[in-house]
Amino acid sequence: MPGLTKSAAGPPEGTRSGLKAVILAAGISVRLKPLTDATPKCLLPIGGETILGRTLHNLSEAGVRDVVLVTGYLAAQIEAYAGAKFPHMRFEFVHNPVYATTNNIYSLWLAKDRLLGGTMLLLDSDIIFDAKILGLLLDSGRPACLAVKRGLAFSEEEIKVTVDARHRVREISKEVPIPKTWGESIGIEKFSPEVVATLFDSLERKVVVENQVNAFYESSFQEIIDRGAEIYALDIGSLLAAEIDTPDDIRDAAENILPGLPRLPF
User: Fold this and answer.
1) Are strands 5-8 and 90-95 parallel, antiparallel or unpaired?
2) Does the reported pTM lie above 0.90?
3) 173: buried, middle or exposed (CB in 10 Å: 19+, 13-18, 0-12)?
4) Range in 119-128, 147-156, 218-227 with the lowest mean pLDDT
5) Residue whose C-alpha is closest to residue 147's, from 128, 134, 156, 165
6) What are the strands, taking DSSP E only, across 90-166?
């Protein structure tokens, strides 16, 4: 059930060699209705700029110009926005036609052919975050790592992690017991070409063979960790990041996150 792919070309200068960012932006975002009745979540404005606009600006600031955008709900709006607002970036659009009945594991799997062979920076499309977080991952020297926020009052909703003494992830899921939790995975990860290949082997089996199209992609993280892959947790420290799922999240981000971030130049 592969999705359709379209490309919007832009100049490649300024790219980090062999690196692509993939942003998953297919979902309906029921919890944000009626705000998302006619607007995809990633195009909702917070503090005068869209969530996606802030993400793409951060990627550009980090030297990332090649972006795979996996769309679904109201895809045409996302494609038009990205191409018009960021003409200096090079976009590949992969459409998830069954976005209403699948989860992010399926959207990521659809982008397989666009991502194999290079380093992958994976981002959820609903995060407000400090651009410095991208630098932490890209300059970490780790083949695979994910950004983790610590010091929270965790709940059942977050993707939680446990780590070993070297900060290698041992467990990652919403089901990690809160007393064992080391931190929350904020939805930004980097993988080397070798780990990308291993990850997509897992995704392929889960989606195609096992039909786990409603799982979270972190289930494949866990599988390859259990098979020996090393994925490191990087503590973002005082750097700010917030996931946007509800109207309260929007208000909290506007009041408590945006004032601590650098002002955008547009």
Assistant:
1) antiparallel
2) yes
3) middle
4) 147-156
5) 134
6) 90-95, 119-124, 127-129, 144-149, 160-163
pLDDT, tens digit, for every residue of 102-112?
999 999 999 99
Model confidence at 2: pLDDT above 60? no
Straight-line distance from the first to the last Cα atom of the chain, in angstroms, rounded to the nearest whole number = 39
200: helix, strand or coil: helix
Q: Which domains does the chain have, with CATH numbers?
A: 5-260 (3.90.550.10)
Q: Give the position of tokens 């590949």.
A: 92
The three-state secondary structure class of 152 is coil
What is the distance between the alpha carbons of residues 216 and 154, in angstroms, rounded to a whole number? Answer: 19
What is d(CA 43, CA 74) in angstroms, rounded to the nearest whole number? 10
d(CA 74, CA 41): 10
| CB of 94 closer than 8 Å to CB of 5 | yes
- Average pLDDT of span 151-164: 89
CA dist., res. 122 & res. 67, Å (int) = 10
Question: How far from 24 is each of 152, 164, 202, CA to CA, in Å?
Answer: 25, 29, 18
pLDDT of residue 3: 52
Rounded Cα–Cα distance for residues 259 and 253 (Å): 9
